[in-house]
Amino acid sequence: MSTQSGVDAAVGARHRADTRRLSTGRTGDRIFAGAARGSGILVLAIMAAIAVFLIWKAIPALQDNKANFITSQDWNPNATPPKFGIAQLAFGTVMSAGLSLVMATPVAIAIALFIAYYSPRKIASGLGYVVDLLAAVPSIVYGLWGLRVLAPHMDGISRFLNDVLGWIPFFGGDSPGKNSIFTASVVLAIMILPIISSISREVFLQVPRANVEAALALGATRWEMIRLAVLPYGQSGVIGASMLGLGRAMGETIAVAMVLTFVPGINIHLLEDGGSTFAANIAKSFGEASPTGRGALIASGLVLFVITLVVNMAARAVVARRKEFV
Amino acid sequence: MSTPSTSLGSVSASRKIKDRLVQGLVYLAFALAVIPLVSLLWTVVKHGTARFDATFFSHSMNGVAGRDAGGGAYHAIIGTLEQVLIASVISVPLGVLTAVYLVEYGRRGRLSKVISFFVDVMTGIPSIVAGLFILAMWMLTLGIGKQGQGFAGSLALSILMVPTVIRATEEMLKLVPNDLREASYALGVPRWRTICFVILPTALPGILTGVMLAVARVMGETAPLLLTIAVTKAINTNPFSGPQSSLPTFIWDQAGDPNQHAIDRAWSAALVLILIIMLFNLAARLIARAYKPTGR
User: With an 8 Å Cβ cutoff, is B37 touching chain A?
Assistant: First the structure.
């Protein structure tokens, strides 16, 4: 009897609670939850739309193309018949981004170590802010600076590298110049430096205090402590960070477009003027592009989109795997 | 970090040298990063002040050729401010609501995992691809603003802004203590009112900081604007009709001109752009500092 009434009471209470919730804003709840969910779905839809529209608008141009899209080095989509291929663009993109990564990663790791373990505690965050300032400078200003300030200095450096390292094909060639892929990759290296170093710094700061202190207690010098405790722990984080930097370097447009002078054809001598990248080519040839030309640029943008997508996903996977360890 | 002197003296010497060597390299690396920053800021200020005058802020480039002195970036400043404002109006609600979904509603659900993954992917989209997408969808498919349109530029910028806003908001919402949510629910407040009037206000300074940083980031974007707003020399205050200018495309346009007057204008525009961006960065830092959460 008493149990029966207890159950009744509970049911009644639940019912009352339901009706009350209905009156105090269940509709509002439903609208708000719907809006939040809808926004999330809209973000997914945008990503899907990017892929769909790029493919859709690229297809007509690709069908008109009289050259092999993958292997041809020409970029003449405005000609009749249109002939264009991405070989040169792919070469320039991979080379400039790869070279910038080679230059930026060691420096970025050293900066991260400096801020995390070498600089005085009190000014560490201030120094971090200085490096972050590099990230706040817009790419167009990097381009202007690279073109007007850095490029004239690169003349001598390129000639020196050509003299000393000329036996390496990439540094070979007869006429090292200042508007080369090498100069572009120096600008790119400066631009991706803050990205790599800020993520590495965060990873280094997460190294368990116990590991650091254990290494020091065993008599390790500061460098030995870093080599034994910090670097192994931060390894995958640093790899992920530099891959994010790689993705950024490959997609960078304006700074590269301003520094490079376009010379048709793949040139393996990276110190000589010339070369182009996917993004720089889009910015430079968009102005004079015919409808087919636009389609061709969209097609090359699609390739860039896919490449950066793969690099970024791989980077996220590497960083995420590290998270699971922690 | 003094190493105690023991019998391992000779070993210690080589280890010490190595330690010092690395220390030197690490200091050198930091200096190496500061050199371009200082050089860049210094040249921008040095060359930028040449045309940092009243004409620059009150005149457009209408009827001014590259070799002429005079002319200004008034049209470009208006364009940049309008485009970024519209981009923020689009991307802040979208970003905040998505973050609310990720943190408050979709916790650990499959949809929220997928969204979270693609937000990460979206962060890495090259800015020029965002421009190409708006070109392909808005201008070529829907046929709106074919001659260039400020609003199309705003759309492209908001694609770049949304993931930054989502990530910043998400981080801040995660920092809101669960006690607040539970206290609010215990008082019988419905979920949406809890979110709107308890959780979001608590996280507001952090969200604002994130939005400011996102604004500062997209303000310097050039590539997507080149494809969408077209370049005009005249003042156009209506972002929904006709081509507009913007500071980054103004710099691109002027820097491509071999005349010294044009290059001076490019440097001055770069100075203005950097100043505006630094202002937003500074504001973001001040907000973050003023409302720094104290303890729990």
Answer: yes
Two tokens, residue B264: 């001076």
The verdict on a CB contact (< 8 Å) between B111 and A37 is yes
User: Phi/psi of residue A301, each to 5°?
Assistant: -65, -35
Distance CA A42, CA B199 (A): 23
Distance to chain A for B270, nearest Cα, Å = 6
> B41 exposed, middle or buried (CB, 10 Å; 0-12, 13-18, 19+)?
middle
Helix (H, G, I), strand (E, B) or coil at B67: coil
ipTM value for the complex: 0.88
Q: Which of A37, A44, A221 is closest, CB to CB, to B16?
A: A221
Q: Reply yes or no: is the peptide bond before residue B201 cis, omega within 30 of 0.
A: no
pLDDT digits (tens, 9 = 90+) for A67-123: 888 888 888 888 888 889 899 999 999 999 999 999 999 999 999 999 999 988 888
Verify whether the Cβ–Cβ distance B126 to A39 is below 8 Å.
no
Give me the residues of B, 126-185, that contact A with CB < 8 A. Answer: 126-130, 132-133, 135-137, 140-141, 159, 162, 166
What is d(CA A180, CA A146) in angstroms, rounded to the nearest whole number? 11
Task: Determine, for residues B137 and A311 on separate chains, whether the beta-carbon distance falls below 8 Å.
Answer: no
C-alpha distances out from residue A48 to B118, B130, B239, Å? 10, 12, 27
pTM for this one? 0.87
Query: Three-state secondary structure along A232-262?
Result: HHHHHHHHHHHHHHHHHHHHCCHHHHHHCCC
The residue behind tokens 């000779």 is B10
Q: Which two tokens stand for residue A46?
A: 């945008």
Token pair in block for residue A259: 């520094």
- Pairing assessment for the beta strands A75-76 and A83-84 based on DSSP bridges: antiparallel
Q: Which residues of B touch A283 (CB under 8 A)?
A: 128, 222-223, 226
Domain positions in chain A are 75-325
Count of CB pairs separated by less than 8 Å, A with B: 269
Angle between helices B9-48 and B260-290 in degrees, nearest 10: 120
Residues A193/B33, Cβ–Cβ less than 8 Å: yes
B248 and A138 Cβ atoms separated by less than 8 Å: yes
Exposed, middle or buried by CB within 10 Å (0-12, 13-18, 19+), for B145?
buried
The CATH code of domain A75-325 reads 1.10.3720.10
Q: Which residues of A230-261 are buried (b: 16+ CB within 10 A; e: fewer)?
A: beebbebbbbbbbbbbbbbbbbbbbbbbbbbe
Question: Which residues of A are less than 8 Å from B2 in CB distance?
Answer: none
pLDDT digits (tens, 9 = 90+) for A107-148: 999 999 999 999 888 888 888 888 888 888 999 999 999 999
B128: left (phi over 0), alpha (psi -120 to 50) or beta: alpha
Whether B122 contacts chain A with CB within 8 A: yes
Do A33 and B191 lie within an 8 Å CB cutoff?
yes
Q: How far is B174 from chain A (nearest CA, A)?
A: 16
Please give the C-alpha separations between residue A5 and each of A8, A16, B152, in angstroms, as whole numbers: 5, 16, 66
Domains located in chain B, CATH noted:
75-290 (1.10.3720.10)
Spatial separation of the C-alpha atoms in residues A250 and A154, rounded to whole Å: 21
